[in-house]
Design a protein that fits this description.
Biased composition (Low complexity): 24-35
Largest sheet: 9 strands, mixed
Order of helices and strands: EEEEEHEEEHHEEEEHEEEEEEEH
Number of domains: 2
Low-confidence stretches: 1-26, 29-37, 341-345
Distance between the termini: 33 Å
Number of helices: 5
Number of strands: 19
Mean pLDDT: 86
Helix content: 10-25%
Region (Disordered): 1-45
Structural class: alpha/beta
C-alpha cells in the first residue's frame, strides 16, 4: 500500500493514503450505458456494474459563489458502496457551459466510483480526511490532479436532500502543487486557500477543471513548519473561541498522543498538526506576503479552526499567540501532562 507522512513530523505518523490508480484492477463498468432518465429530467441513474450492485446518480444543478457567481454543476452520488462498509462518495464538477451540454457529463467520477468499489471489496476503506494519491491521470480532464481528500459532508446547493446519503464523503481533488503543500504543511493550509479563493467556507464542494493552483510551495518559504517537527493524527482539531483555545482529540488517537506526552520531558515542545473542525465558522489563511497575516475567512468569528498548535511548557508566563495559521500556547504548568489536561478536550 502506498503511504505518505507529513515530512515535517518528528516521527512517521502515517495518514491513510490509498493505492495508485495504475495498480488497481477495475471492475467491469457499464458507465457508458444510457442513463435511465430522459434527457430533460434529473437525477439520472447510471449503472456501473453488470450485476446492478453499483450505480451512480448524476444531478445537474445551479450553485452560487461570491467570487464566480452563478454556475452549473453535475453532482455525482455513488450508490452501492455502503453495502461494503464504505461511506458513499460524492463528486461535484463544474460544467463548462460554453462547450458542454447538460446531458454530456464527464465519466471520470463514475470510473472513480468503480475503483472505490474494488478497493472496498479488498477491505480498503476511505473515511474523513483520508487521501488517495496517484501519478498523472486524466481524471476530471486535468492531468495535474495528484491527490483526492475525502472531506466530511458539505452542503450542496439545489440538490434534493432525498437523493443525498446521510453517511457520505465529498471528494476534493488537489493539483500537484496543492498536494505538495498539503503533504508538507498540512491539509488545513490547502483547504483554507481553496475555500478562500471562492470565499466559500470551509471549502467549495465543486471541482473547477480550469482553475489555477490555489497555493504553491514557494509561497511557504520561511514557514515555521519547515523547522518545527509536527505530529499528525487524523481528526485532531484545534479551535479559538475568543481567548480560549480548545483541542479536540478523537478517541482512537488518544492512546498514541498520551504515549507521546508521557514519553516527553518536562520541557519538551509538542506540536500537533490539526484538521478542520466540523463546528467551526471560520479558518485562517497564511502564506508569505499575505496581508493581513494571517487572514481569516468564513461565515463568522466565534469558532476559528486553526491549522496547528504548539505547546511550550514551563514558561515564565501563560500566553496564547497566533502564528501563521496556527497557535502557540506558552504555559507555566510544570509538565506536558498537566498542560495538555488543561488545554485538550
Amino acid at each position: 500500500m502506498d503511504k505518505a507522512s507529513n515530512p515535517s513530523s518528528k516521527r512517521r505518523f502515517f495518514l491513510p493514503i490509498r493505492e495508485k490508480i495504475s495498480s488497481i484492477k477495475r471492475q467491469p463498468s457499464t458507465s457508458s450505458s444510457s442513463p435511465s432518465k430522459d434527457e430533460g429530467s434529473w437525477p439520472k441513474t447510471v449503472p456501473l456494474l453488470p450485476d446492478g450492485q453499483m450505480q451512480a446518480l448524476v444531478y445537474h444543478h445551479e450553485i452560487n459563489s461570491m467570487v464566480s457567481g452563478k454556475m452549473y454543476c453535475w453532482t455525482y452520488i455513488s450508490k452501492g458502496l455502503a453495502k461494503l462498509g464504505q461511506k458513499e462518495v460524492i463528486f461535484t464538477v463544474r460544467r463548462r457551459e460554453k462547450t458542454e451540454a447538460a446531458a454530456t457529463f464527464p465519466p471520470g467520477p463514475l470510473e472513480w466510483f468503480s475503483i472505490l468499489y474494488s478497493l472496498a471489496q479488498n477491505g480498503q476503506i476511505v473515511d474523513e480526511f483520508h487521501q488517495t494519491r496517484f501519478e498523472s491521470s486524466p481524471l476530471l480532464d486535468r492531468l495535474d490532479v495528484r491527490l483526492i481528500i475525502y472531506y466530511p459532508p458539505l452542503e450542496l446547493q439545489h440538490v434534493p436532500l432525498s437523493i443525498i446519503p446521510r453517511e457520505r464523503l465529498q471528494a476534493i481533488p488537489l493539483t500537484a502543487s496543492e498536494a505538495q503543500v498539503a503533504q508538507s504543511y498540512g491539509v488545513m493550509r490547502v483547504i483554507s486557500h481553496l475555500g478562500s479563493s471562492e470565499r466559500y467556507f470551509p471549502v467549495m464542494p465543486w471541482i473547477d477543471r480550469d482553475r489555477r493552483d490555489c497555493v504553491a510551495s514557494w509561497q511557504m518559504k520561511g514557514s515555521l513548519r519547515d523547522q518545527l517537527p509536527m505530529l499528525s493524527f487524523l481528526g485532531v482539531s484545534c479551535v479559538k473561541r475568543n481567548t480560549t483555545i480548545s483541542v479536540y482529540i478523537p478517541r482512537n488517537a488518544e492512546p498514541e498522543i498520551a504515549a507521546e506526552v508521557k514519553s516527553s520531558s518536562a520541557t519538551t515542545v509538542l506540536s500537533l498538526d490539526c484538521f478542520p473542525y466540523k463546528h467551526s465558522d471560520s479558518g485562517m489563511v497564511w502564506h508569505q506576503g499575505i496581508t493581513p497575516s494571517p487572514r481569516a475567512y468564513g461565515t463568522g468569528t466565534s469558532c476559528i479552526s486553526l491549522g496547528f498548535i504548539i505547546f511550550c511548557p514551563q514558561q515564565d508566563l501563560d500566553e496564547l499567540r497566533l502564528m501563521e495559521d496556527g497557535v502557540s500556547c506558552k504555559d507555566t504548568n510544570s509538565s506536558p501532562n498537566e498542560a495538555w489536561i488543561g488545554h485538550a478536550s
